Amino acid sequence: MKKGIRIDLVRLMMYILKRIWLVILCMVIAAGFMYWRGNRNHVDTYTASGTMYVNNSNPNLINYQYASSSDITSAVMLIDTYAVVVRSNRVMDRVAEQLSSKYPGIVPEFIASTVFMSPVGETGVVRVSCTTVSAQMSMDFCNAILDVAPTAIQDVVGAGNAQVIDFAPLPAAPNGRSTLRSMLFGAVAGGGLAAAALAVLFLLRQRVESSDELTDNYTPPVLSEVPRAKKQNDDPAAFLLNKSSSMEDLESYAKLRMNLFYTMVGKNCRSVMVTSAVSGEGKSTIAANLAISCAMSGKKVMLIDADMRRACQRDIFRHHDSERKGLSDVLYGGCEWREAVVSDEKGMPDVIHAGHLPPNPAELLESQTMRDLIAKLEKKYDLVILDSPPINIVSDPMTLSGLVAGALFVVRQGFTDHREIRKALVSAEMTGMNILGFVFYGEKLKQGSYYRRKQYQNYYHRYDSREQTGSREPARGKGKWN
Predict the structure, then answer these.
(1) Which residue, 48, 125, 297, 409, is most buried by CB atoms nearer than 10 A?
(2) What's the rounded Cα separation, in Å, for the pair 165 and 176?
(3) Where are the alpha helices (DSSP H) in 242-385?
């Protein structure tokens, strides 16, 4: 068993792209929220701006009308000083007094809170701006400050002079809202959070979605990808393989059959068990259909339902005789194994059902009687398939592992958990169980899309001997079942 699970960035991207609708939805919701937030109780504001020039040149050079670059640099660096001066109580008191006739009750602190000063490029020009909820008020405040500020700056700095260049005009429109920028920010943030959440879910996701995950993370090979039909009712026989099954189903089991016999080359044992990590993964269906596929190919096959705790082969094959003897009866000595065999029509496997539920299934499977039974069956059959319980549920598969050539490990798409697989493989390794390979069982397989494409249907029918004979029976001699 390989260590850990590798992160595939390509699959991560595909996982997110398949759910891109969720990312887009989060982007729309986030953008809408930012729009609502930006317009909730929003009050338009107006900014009026004027400029003044502050000359910090040496008084000895003023008569020569010369201003050095160092003087301009000094003026720019003194912008913060000018701002403090303009916002000082000395200036604001004078501005408030000038505006008191038009705005009774105006206070210097409020005027100071509306003022903002900034340099205009690398020059000695200073822009004075005032922002309020009224265009007229912003203009009046700004122009009043421009009336008072030059004198105050000259008094404080004590050098050069300051003079107004442009008084503030009346703002024509309110300040632009940053709604679009907020919406874009919200959309990017919402989409990013959604993508991050999907990435976390991908990393935390433990269920197997493709056979490539088995190949990339575990040592046993994938022997076949078997399509799982959507169950129309509660009848277990609905999954049973037959000669009228689709070509896709028949070929999937044929591939499994051939790969299984290939892995058993050189082994003296003709028995194999089918198991899984937990229940509900389709191992009993795989075991039954594999037995049928082998029987269709001309092999003499015995299928044993060794899952005595949760037997289901009787329902799958619709053998409703509950009084018929089964495996437990054979192992208890209640009958000969031949009495427990159920034989259907030609081309179908022989079946030994689980029988009545015993109090000690694991002990019975570990008994010498079970060993002798397997030995006898291997002499009469080309292949003996045991439908065993899940590895992580009970110890029965570990008991059976010493009686068979190996185990087929069924993994169901979107159901089997990587953690359960690792746990099962550790148990198998500790008990010496030989895992021959995985059988990937799912409803959305890559090979299925190949067979369903219209452009391949003509080629597909050419290889179906049933279509050539005009019946659903296989052609003799060169049939598909051989």
Answers:
(1) 409
(2) 26
(3) 247-263, 283-296, 313-316, 327-332, 337-340, 361-365, 368-380
Sequence-ordered strand ranges (E) for 17-114: 46-55
Domains of the chain and any CATH numbers = 9-41+177-204 (no CATH), 46-166 (3.30.70.1130), 211-469 (3.40.50.300)
Asked if residues 156 and 85 have their Cβ atoms less than 8 Å apart, the reply is: yes
Report the length, in residues, of the chain.
482
Q: What is the pLDDT of residues 310-322, one digit of tens each?
A: 888 888 888 877 6
Max Cα–Cα distance, the chain, nearest Å: 130
Q: Containing H/E element for 75?
A: helix 69-77
Q: Report residue 180 as tokens.
A: 């679009």
3-state percent helix, strand, coil for the chain, nearest multiple of 5: 50, 15, 35
Count other Cβ atoms within 10 Å, centred on residue 355: 23
pLDDT at 160: 57
Q: What is the mean pLDDT of residues 36-57?
A: 79
Task: Summarize pLDDT for 326-365 with one digit per residue, the tens.
Answer: 999 999 888 899 889 988 777 789 999 998 888 888 889 9
Beta-strand relationship, 341-343 and 383-387: unpaired
Q: Coil, strand, or helix at residue 277?
A: coil
Q: pTM here?
A: 0.60
